[in-house]
Hints:
BirA Bifunctional Protein, domain 2
Amino acid sequence: MKTLICHSPVLYSRYLEFQEKSRTKRKESLIFLEHPATITSGTSANEENLLVSLSQLERQKISFLKVNRGGDFTAHEPGQLVIYPHLDLKKRNLSVTDYIGIFRNSLSFSIQKTWGLEVSDNPEKPGLYVSTPYEKKLVSFGITFKSFFTSFGAGFNISNSLETFQYIHPCGGQAGDMISISSLKLEPGLKDRFIQKFIQEFFKKLESKG
């Protein structure tokens, strides 16, 4: 499986094109990238959770797209690391539950090993959270399974400002529910170390299930 680490922001529309080609050819990859300021709505999005008009977003130079992933509205912006695994679950003999567990646990493990930060999941509100002491979301999930092939993935707030979230109720919550590595006063410069730990752990867990 090819691993790609993009160091410049990638337009969301460009990722969608890559994703569709990957699924059509069932070509596996693991991608790490950032997007310019973008808001997307998932298949279960509640329109009331978009707090401004599309023309207002355009004036703020924020892209808006409706996408075929699970979940509500979410935001992307520079400084947020987006992780997109494209896996052929049928070829790997993996269930959807297996895949979600591997992805989530690899993220949790790598965050803890990189920053010493304990995160937890919430079955009612998919994501990874820290207690500060109130529950704040650090990682958002939005995953699609089509013909047993995965797409989309997770948005991990590292050094992003979180400003784009003010225009939505992210995943039905509040913009103030979001948190980043920077706002936790941790070192965002450890991103590359995190990526390497995640790659190692993710592949190890995949192989152990294979």
